[in-house]
Design a protein that fits this description.
Elements (H helix, E strand, L loop, with lengths): L2 E2 L2 E2 L20 H12 L2 H4 L1 H9 L3 H25 L5 H9 L2 H36 L20 H15 L2 H26 L19 E3 L2 E3 L1 H8 L6 H6 L7 H30 L2 H4 L5 H8 L3 H14 L1 H20 L18 H17 L2 H29 L12 H17 L3 H25 L1 H5 L1
Antiparallel strand pairs: 1-2, 3-4
């Protein structure tokens, strides 16, 4: 067993022999593209468009472009690594095989933030659309059950219920969940196409003046973090999700073909969708008003006196946003699963159901954790902390891709990232810039989370590591 400076290295061609801990190959490329689009197109465009407009004004379109460019570089690195190491675990597994166990643990611990908090963010966004949709129909739910203590309530009950419902669906089986996700993605695409068709005729160039009211760099203004980069650091949440496709590598029938199509195809499609929707939304209403709404697309349509279209968009969001929760919760359960299979988390979590071929226990644990966070925390704070975990994972994957190009250039690569050193460097520098553009309190919480993770690793995981034991 190879050893690196930062702990033992998991073999690049490691395969799990225990049938009780081996995932079943049930997914093809249409499932993977749908998983990618299902994860990427969701809360970012349905709810965070308003948050981004509040931070950057009309220049939020530039924020989307910057975040998308960084993600495109990371996606190319992911595509190469996912086809080279087609096992579950994505960034955690790649780091374990290329850099070493200790850094892999930190990446895996950070991925818990990415996937779990992403699920929670979408659950909170879904709850906001549910409330708006019901209120437009004259139904008013008790305020105490619609927000956590930060909003004067007790718990965000709709967010809790949707998280637990999706967890139950995933326990039923991976292929069934992925097929259902294709239906949700189709609904989502139709809804966004309708929004653009209705909003574009109301486009007004005056809504883009001034284009960059808060400047480019991230800074604090009147107690709020403003600027194009401040918005990019949070709308970045709107672009990731393609890494959940990489997490499915072990369950892909033809990893070389399916993962490449799934990652690159979903990323390209979603970038075009986002730019079109953002231009239509900001062109139709003032960015100041847009930034005040928790359900910005429905708000735009109500403002334009299209109540039925607003109602339909709200309904589509209610139906389709759970697809993001489904994909992200799927990704999180697989990260937990692989860390458990390696011995860094309790081994009981990596048991696979004989009936469905999916890890039922770890999926239920993930669902409870996601529901708890969604029930008691604010959307913007959850999204920012999730972004911190994702950015660290993207940095690790780009670094792994470049290291392997130098260390093992002879390895057969099904997908080869073009200009790997340039693309990898741009991905790392872009992610670092977005990371430092996050609010200070978010970075402090992220650091504390990783301190907690290191303590857990030293006290539990390190001594029980199966890879370390075999080294």
């Amino acid at each position: 067993m190879a050893r690196g400076l930062l702990g033992p290295l998991k073999p690049l061609d490691a395969r799990e022999a225990d049938p009780e801990r081996k995932l079943r190959k049930t997914l093809s490329w249409p499932h993977l593209i749908a998983l990618g689009i299902g994860a990427i197109v969701g809360t970012g465009i349905y709810t965070l468009t308003g948050v981004g407009a509040d931070r950057a004004g009309p220049a939020v379109i530039l924020s989307f472009a910057i975040a998308g460019a960084v993600c495109a570089c990371a996606a190319l690195a992911y595509a190469e690594m996912a086809t080279l190491i087609p096992t579950a675990g994505s960034a955690y597994t790649y780091t374990y095989s290329v850099i070493g166990e200790s850094i892999a643990w930190i990446v895996g611990w950070s991925l818990i933030l990415e996937y779990s908090l992403a699920c929670s963010t979408v659950a909170v966004g879904w709850s906001a659309y549910l409330v708006g949709w019901l209120q437009s129909a004259g139904v008013h739910l008790p305020a105490a059950l619609l927000s956590g203590p930060h909003g004067g309530g007790i718990v965000n009950l709709p967010a809790v219920l949707v998280a637990l419902g999706i967890a139950g669906m995933l326990v039923a089986g991976t292929r069934e969940s992925a097929t259902f996700n294709i239906v949700l993605v189709a609904i989502k695409m139709v809804a966004l196409a309708v929004f653009v068709a209705v909003a574009l005729p109301a486009f007004s160039g005056s809504n883009f003046e001034p284009f960059m009211p808060y400047g480019f760099g991230s800074h604090v203004e009147n107690g709020a973090t403003r600027g194009v980069m401040a918005a990019a650091a949070i709308v970045f949440f709107a672009f990731y999700g393609f890494d959940a496709v990489a997490t499915s590598a072990e369950e892909a029938r033809n990893p070389g073909r399916d993962l490449t199509i799934g990652i690159i195809g979903s990323m390209a499609a979603c970038t075009l969708i986002y730019m079109g929707v953002a231009v239509a939304a900001i062109g139709a209403v003032s960015y100041i008003d847009l930034g005040k709404s928790a359900e910005p697309l429905a708000y735009v349509l109500r403002t334009l006196q299209h109540p039925f279209a607003a109602w339909a968009i709200g309904l589509a969001a209610l139906i389709a946003l759970p697809s993001v929760i489904l994909v992200m919760m799927y990704g999180q359960s697989r990260i937990f699963f692989v860390m458990s299979r390696d011995g860094l988390l309790p081994r009981a979590l990596s048991r696979v159901s004989a009936r469905t071929g999916s890890p039922a226990l770890v999926t239920m644990v993930t669902g409870v954790f996601v529901a708890a966070v969604a029930g008691f925390f604010r959307l913007d704070e959850i999204a920012e902390l999730a972004n911190a975990g994702t950015l660290l994972a993207f940095i690790a994957v780009a670094a792994c891709m470049m290291v392997l190009r130098k260390r093992a250039p002879e390895l057969k690569r099904v997908f080869r990232c073009p200009a790997p050193m340039l693309v990898g460097t741009l991905a790392i520098l872009g992610c670092i810039y977005l990371l430092v553009s996050l609010p200070t309190h978010t970075l402090v919480r992220f650091a504390l989370w990783n301190v907690l993770g290191v303590v857990f690793y030293l006290g539990y995981g390190r001594a029980r590591s199966l890879v370390r034991a075999a080294a």
